[in-house]
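debug: dumping io for the single-chain case to check the tokenizer round-trip. Nothing else runs in this session.
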Amino acid sequence: MIDTNTYRLDMNSTELETLRNIILGEGHINQTSLESLNKKIKTIKIIKRSNAKVLATAKASDTKTKQAKEKIENGINILRLENVKFTFSSIAKSSGVSFNTVKKYVTKKRLKSLNDLTIKRSLK
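debug: decoded output
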């Protein structure tokens, strides 16, 4: 079975610095913070996630991905009608999604082929 739990350890800045010093093996180790961290580790908080919640989150993520891809395709079709050069930026503007989302789902190879097709159509 997959461990779907998340573990949380709340600490203040001094405790965090002490933990960093322990892990990196450098700097001063504050004894009071070390004792405090030890107590907190013994009572670490477990945030449980049910399999149903994990599946629901995955489904929502898939839905959001499909919606973004549809918006991008619609934006590309709009640019085709306008006979405009395809760039990540122009696709983002016409589709209403962010530049980074376009970069995530449209490869440079696809962008080049879109522009090549536009040039061929304009030469006809």
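debug: round-trip ok. Residues 6-47 form one domain.
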